[in-house]
Amino acid sequence: MRTGDVLEARVRLPRETGAWPAIWTWLDGGQEVDVFEYHPDNPDLLELSNRVRGRYLYFRDPEVRPGVWVDLRVEFGARSVVWWVNGARVFDDRRGVGRSWRAYLIVNLSVCAGRYHPAPDPDVSEMSYEVSELRVYRN
């Protein structure tokens, strides 16, 4: 990923307690921008953050909940990173990532250990998080 890229993704949020899905960027111990993070114990909340320049939003929406599909779009601008959720512009950080930013794209499902969010139910043997589409447009 680099400055000016646009990411679009369609994800199905997990239902299982302890699931921690995310799409984010990382390089050499930093350069992190969270397209989203999600925890089913906060069923209507997506975490959107630009950790490169210290801006974030805890976005709440009743349409965001365990098991639903969510459409995401993020523009990684030099002066502003902009997020859309389900077609609505929801956050413009007005800080951006700078002109020479670059990082690797990470799509993952972590498992909470119980410190900040509940750990998985020990009787649940699997959890899922789906990504049906993921596109990056380069300007």
Distance between the termini: 11 Å
Give the averaged pLDDT, no decimals.
96
Helix content: under 10%
Strand content: over 45%
Number of strands: 10
Q: What characterizes the major β-sheet?
A: 5 strands, antiparallel
Radius of gyration: 15 Å
Task: Report what the structure shows.
With 139 residues, the chain is mainly β. The protein has a single domain (6-115), classed as Jelly Rolls (Sandwich), CATH 2.60.120. Helices cover 0% and strands 48% of the residues. The strands form two sheets. Strands 8-7-6-1-10 form a five-stranded antiparallel sheet, with no helix packed on it.
Sum up the structure in keywords.
139 residues, mainly beta, Jelly Rolls, five-stranded antiparallel β-sheet, 0% helix, globular
Give a nutshell description of this structure.
By secondary structure, the chain is an all-beta fold. It has strands at residues 6-12, 19-26, 33-38, 45-50, 55-60, 69-76, 81-85, 88-92, 104-111, 130-137.
Task: Please specify the SSE layout and strand pairing.
Layout: E1 6-12, E2 19-26, E3 33-38, E4 45-50, E5 55-60, E6 69-76, E7 81-85, E8 88-92, E9 104-111, E10 130-137
Antiparallel strand pairs: 1-6, 1-10, 2-3, 2-9, 3-4, 4-5, 6-7, 7-8
